Amino acid sequence: MSAAGKHRRTRTARVTRAIAVAGTGVAVLALPIVGATSASAATPTVTTATSLGYANSLDGWIQASLQVMAQNGIPGSYDGIYRNIMRESSGNQYAINNWDSNAAAGTPSKGLLQVIDPTFQAYHVAGTSFDPYDPVANITAACNYAFQRYGSIDNVFGAY
Predict the structure, then answer these.
(1) What is the pLDDT along the chain (160 residues), one digit of tens a residue?
(2) For residue 144, which of 69, 60, 48 has the smallest C-alpha distance?
(3) Which one of 40, 83, 92, 160 is least enclosed by Cβ atoms within 10 Å?
């Protein structure tokens, strides 16, 4: 083989090796990004009435919330929750109060038990949705707040 042919093959091999190494480096650098994207795209398990075997209805939402509450040491009864839901939202999970002082301050009360976002976030119970309109999350966070403030949702007989 001529010297020129040998030089060309060696140079081609070096360029190929450099591209392969660079490509591997890019792939290695991309792995954490790809992994993070995939991990953040994963949906965590969220407790719902149906995931606990209850109907997707007011009765099921209360039953599921009572189960989550029991697991987290939050007291309350079906009757106490139901009574407060009927007063606050008449059972409408998408109820929103756009007229009171909370709404005027930019934080309207939302959901079955009419919780404002800062209260919902502060008393959110792990394993439930972070959506204040989610029935189980709304009931459970509101009952957690009522527990901390009044001892139980059973002790709440008016706006809280």
Answers:
(1) 555 554 455 555 555 555 444 444 444 333 344 444 444 455 668 999 999 999 999 999 999 999 999 999 999 999 999 999 999 999 999 999 999 999 999 999 999 999 999 999 999 999 999 999 999 999 999 999 999 999 999 999 988 8
(2) 69
(3) 40
Tokens of residue 148, six digits? 């901390």
CA 51, 56, 57, 60: dihedral to nearest 10 degrees?
A: -20
Contact 49, 136 (CB under 8 A): yes
Cut 0.70: pTM above it: yes
Residue 148 phi/psi, 5-degree rounding, is -65, -35
Name the β-bridge partners of 115.
110
Enter the DSSP assignment of 115. B
What tokens does 87 get?
């007063």
